[in-house]
């Protein structure tokens, strides 16, 4: 088959899929969907003009002061009643009487008190903003200057000293000599009235929230000089919100690909395609192509709408492949739409954690660069990134997508698609498909190597969760989780064989298979480490994830010991002994890492 013919057949399948997708919405439903969409736009516009009023008049307040009543009436959450001077009537959530404030001894009363405290603070700020001598009201003015963070991920020294306790009886001395720091001039190149106007314009808004709610609209006031209460965290939450606008439609679109695969399995309409001479690669490529182009188009439209650069498409591209790959696999694994929903929700939770959590630390910590969204944020902020940064952030997404597409294509057959075994049994079936009975050890070697992207992705996710915890807690958690993830990944091939062919587990086969798995895992580990993770490998956490890779025989022995332990326990205990076998191998692995870290020179 020529290349041109291959692509022509893929294009034909893509046209069929596009026609099928357009036909899923009947002519009766389409007008209703259009009307609902118009109503949604109208409701959004009305909300933008008049605001949300879900909390209007939820608190009752009594006041004997005109000033206090004015403050309360400025907040739509309060219904205000006049009360006699100096009285304290019951039945109110909040009472202002005789210059004092009383709250009901209920949760609602405490909430009303907090709301009034915020309103009173805004009232005082409004008074200060109108003081004749503005510098007396606000003696401190701050000019923000953005500087690039010098933090890197070489945290070995920090890691070993993180739990060192200082002697309270000794005066600490600096490591380096001090020097003279010249004070700022104190001059402000802006008039008092301009400062006053900026402050008055910003009255009543929450500086921690308004900066994020105005991201899409482009509104909001950027002050040149700020008072301390107007300072906001430097974390790029505004860019993250904008990134969410990109990612959510992409994930939503990938669900149509998943539903298409699931529909063809449930309705058995996929039998027609499987009966043709087309390969699994052609079918999944053709069916996924319309959704891939839709996702690229959505990204391009959003980029143009927000005024961003089209370079955003580069880091978004592997995320699109990642979503489509998992959508395909989930659609092939689930037995029913109920199970499909459960698996897809679980995947979305894990994927969102891995994709979004690191981007919170963009421009702050090197850990942020494990997510392609960090590159998107850098592009939105007008910053550049290197080719190495791109490889570092996207390599795992490209590799995991490639592995999932490969496994899915190998299993895209009538036997697998129309089997309705339980989820774990289907996963074993998928793995057994890529294990050759003739070249079993070679298959185990390749499977071990192919698990490396998933292992590193899981370990990096644990790293994101644990690295900000205090020492030595984060170190211990990382030790155990890294060992467990590696032992689980190495054991899936052996466990599949032990389940399907327990007689294969002879002593000779166990020894040779353990060596093959160890070699494959080490080879994949080395290749991916050298390609992408040089910065993290220098840290104390990197020492846990990639312990002793500098001396090849040591990690080879470690990997061999771990998988050999699992295989031996499976031989004697059968498939029901898998969990104890995995725990034992994890214990051995953790003990080795602990010894190497605390006695090996870190």
TrEMBL record:
- Name where it's found: Membrane
Keyword terms, alphabetized: Membrane, Transmembrane, Transmembrane helix
Asked if Magnesium is a keyword of the record, the answer is no
Q: Which domain of life is it from?
A: Archaea
What's an example GO cellular component term for this entry? membrane
Annotated TM spans: 29-46, 239-258, 288-306, 312-333, 345-370, 390-409, 444-469, 475-498, 510-531, 551-570, 577-598
Q: Which parts of the sequence belong to the ABC-2 type transporter transmembrane domain? A: 209-408
Please name the GO terms that the record assigns under molecular function: ABC-type transporter activity
Q: How does it sit in the membrane?
A: Multi-pass membrane protein
**Annotated protein name in UniProt:** ABC-2 type transporter
What is the native source organism of this protein? Methanolacinia petrolearia (strain DSM 11571 / OCM 486 / SEBR 4847)
């Amino acid at each position: 088959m020529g290349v041109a013919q291959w692509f022509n057949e893929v294009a034909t399948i893509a046209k069929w899929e596009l026609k099928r997708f357009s036909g899923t919405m009947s002519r009766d439903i389409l007008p209703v969907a259009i009307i609902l969409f118009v109503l949604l736009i109208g409701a959004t516009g009305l909300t933008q003009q008049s605001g949300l009023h879900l909390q209007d008049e939820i608190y009752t307040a009594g006041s004997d002061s005109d000033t206090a009543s004015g403050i309360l009436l400025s907040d739509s959450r309060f219904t205000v009643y006049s009360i006699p001077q100096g009285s304290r009537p019951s039945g109110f959530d909040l009472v202002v009487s005789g210059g004092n404030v009383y709250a009901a001894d209920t949760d609602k009363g405490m909430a009303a008190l907090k709301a009034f405290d915020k309103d009173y603070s805004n009232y005082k700020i409004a008074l200060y903003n109108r003081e004749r001598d503005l510098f007396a009201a606000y003696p401190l003015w701050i000019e923000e200057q953005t500087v690039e963070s010098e933090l890197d991920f070489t945290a070995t020294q920090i890691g070993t000293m993180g739990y060192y306790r200082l002697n309270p009886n000794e005066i600490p001395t600096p490591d380096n000599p001090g020097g003279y720091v010249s004070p700022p001039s104190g001059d402000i190149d802006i008039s008092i009235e301009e400062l006053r106007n900026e402050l008055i314009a910003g009255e009543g808004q929450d500086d921690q929230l308004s900066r994020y709610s105005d991201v899409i609209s482009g509104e909001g006031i950027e002050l040149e000089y700020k008072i301390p209460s107007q300072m906001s965290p430097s974390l790029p939450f505004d860019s993250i919100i904008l990134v969410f606008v990109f990612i959510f439609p992409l994930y939503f679109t990938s669900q149509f690909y998943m539903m298409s695969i699931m529909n063809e399995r449930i309705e058995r309409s996929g039998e027609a395609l499987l009966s043709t001479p087309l390969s699994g690669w052609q079918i999944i490529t053709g069916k996924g192509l319309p959704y891939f182009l839709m996702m690229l188009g959505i990204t391009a439209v959003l980029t143009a709408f927000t005024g961003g650069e089209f370079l955003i498409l580069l880091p978004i591209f592997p995320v699109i492949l990642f979503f489509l790959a998992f959508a395909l696999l989930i659609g092939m694994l689930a037995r029913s739409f109920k199970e499909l929903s459960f698996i897809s929700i679980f995947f979305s939770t894990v994927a969102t954690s891995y994709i979004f959590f690191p981007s919170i630390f963009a421009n702050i910590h090197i850990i942020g660069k494990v997510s392609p969204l960090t590159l998107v944020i850098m592009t939105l902020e007008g910053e550049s990134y290197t080719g190495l940064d791109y490889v570092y952030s996207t390599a795992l997404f490209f590799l995991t997508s490639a592995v999932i597409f490969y496994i899915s294509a190998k299993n895209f057959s009538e036997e697998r698609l129309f089997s309705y075994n339980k989820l774990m049994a289907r996963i074993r079936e998928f793995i057994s498909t890529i294990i050759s009975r003739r070249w079993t050890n070679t298959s185990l070697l390749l499977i071990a190597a192919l698990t490396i992207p998933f292992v590193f992705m899981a370990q990096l996710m644990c790293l994101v969760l644990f690295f900000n915890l205090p020492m030595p807690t984060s170190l211990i958690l990382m030790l155990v989780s890294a060992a467990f993830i590696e032992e689980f990944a190495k054991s899936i091939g052996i466990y599949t064989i032990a389940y399907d062919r327990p007689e294969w587990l002879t002593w000779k086969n166990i020894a040779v298979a353990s060596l093959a798995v160890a070699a494959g895992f080490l080879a994949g580990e080395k290749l991916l480490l050298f390609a992408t993770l040089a910065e993290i490998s220098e840290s104390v956490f990197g020492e846990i994830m990639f312990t002793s890779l500098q001396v090849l025989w040591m990690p080879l022995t470690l990997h061999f010991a771990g998988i050999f332990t699992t295989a031996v326990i499976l031989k004697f205990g059968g498939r029901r002994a898998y969990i104890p076998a995995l725990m034992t191998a994890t214990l051995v692995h953790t003990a080795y890492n602990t010894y190497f870290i605390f006695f090996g020179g870190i």
